[in-house]
Design a protein that fits this description.
By secondary structure, the chain is mainly alpha-helical. The chain has one domain. It contains 7 helices and 2 strands; from the N terminus they run βααααβααα. Helix 2 packs across helix 4 and helix 3 packs antiparallel against helix 4. The chain starts with a strand and ends in a 7-residue tail after the last helix. The relative contact order is 0.18.
Length: about 140
C-alpha cells in the first residue's frame, strides 16, 4: 500500500472555497514534503533530476515541487525512502485531520492556510511528534 494524495482531489472538490488559489489544494502536501526533506526521508531517486535538485537545495518548496515536477500529487512510495513510506502509510490518513485541527482556530478552512515559515514550523512540530510516536510503536529508537 502507498499513501497518496492529489492537489486536484482537494481543489476540484465541490466544497473548495471560491476565491482561494487552486494551488492551496496542495499546501498540506507541500508541507508534508518539506518536513520529509528536512528529516532525510526523501527518496534518493525523485521523479525529476532538475526538480529534485531545486527541492533538495531549498530553492523551491514541497508544494512547488509536487505541483511542477510531481504531477500535482504525492505518492509515498515514489517520493519517500523506505522509512518515510512506512510512516506515511501508517499516518497520512490521519494527517489531514491533524492539519485541520492545527489550523481550525486561525483559518476559515484548511485551504485558506498560508504557506508560511511559521505554518510550516507548526506542521513540522506536529509531524515530529507523530513520527516519534510511530517510531516508538514500531520499536525504533527516536530519530536523531
Amino acid at each position: 500500500m502507498m499513501a497518496s494524495d492529489k492537489f486536484d482531489y482537494h481543489s476540484g472538490a465541490r466544497d473548495f472555497p471560491r476565491g482561494v488559489p487552486r494551488k492551496n489544494g496542495g499546501t498540506h502536501i507541500g508541507m508534508f514534503l518539506d518536513w520529509a526533506r528536512a528529516r532525510g526521508l526523501l527518496n534518493e531517486d525523485l521523479h525529476s533530476p532538475i526538480g529534485s535538485w531545486l527541492f533538495r537545495h531549498g530553492v523551491i518548496s514541497g508544494r512547488t515541487f509536487a505541483s511542477a515536477f510531481g504531477d500535482r500529487s504525492f505518492q509515498s512510495g515514489d517520493d519517500l525512502n523506505d522509512t518515510g513510506d512506512a510512516f506515511a502509510n501508517a499516518y497520512y490518513d490521519e494527517y489531514l485531520q491533524d492539519y485541520d485541527s492545527l489550523f481550525a482556530d486561525q483559518y476559515e478552512t484548511i485551504y485558506h492556510v498560508a504557506y508560511s515559515r511559521q505554518n510550516c514550523k507548526r506542521v513540522a512540530d506536529l509531524l515530529d511528534q507523530r513520527y516519534a510516536t510511530w517510531r516508538a510503536s514500531v520499536g525504533k529508537s527516536p530519530a536523531p
